[in-house]
Write a structure and sequence with these properties.
It contains five helices and three strands. By secondary structure, it is mainly alpha-helical. It has one domain. Strands 2-1-3 form a three-stranded antiparallel sheet. The longest helix has about 35 residues. The protein is globular and about 55 Å long.
Amino acid sequence: MNPIKLSLLLAQQAELLRQVRLANLAGAYRTLRDLAARIGRSPLQGRVHLRPVDPAQERFCVTLVALEQNQSLVEEHLGDDDLVRLADAISCATGMPTQECSFDIGQLAEFAGMLRAELEASGVEFDESVAGPSHERNR
């Protein structure tokens, strides 16, 4: 590994932090876009309640509770990994630790669209040929 000077790192700090933020937003966008596409092909609809991990409440996994339809539909179409990625994407997009929240599951595409607009406004060019995670391609 080549050594790097501290002065160079400090001079580039603001730009590096901006790029990290954009990379995180891009990941959140892709997650929400992919989940929204899957949900759009499923019978899932209506309001849901997301509960993040909270060891103080003895909740050690993310849960998504259907408020307007059968819970079994949520469990059939979204696995534990999907829920963790959803909670992480929401946290990244809002810039805050994930809180309990209720939303219309069908609005994930709109939320992804807002992230896309923010990325585009920051100068990010979209290459839609970029595939999602391998577990998304297999579903």
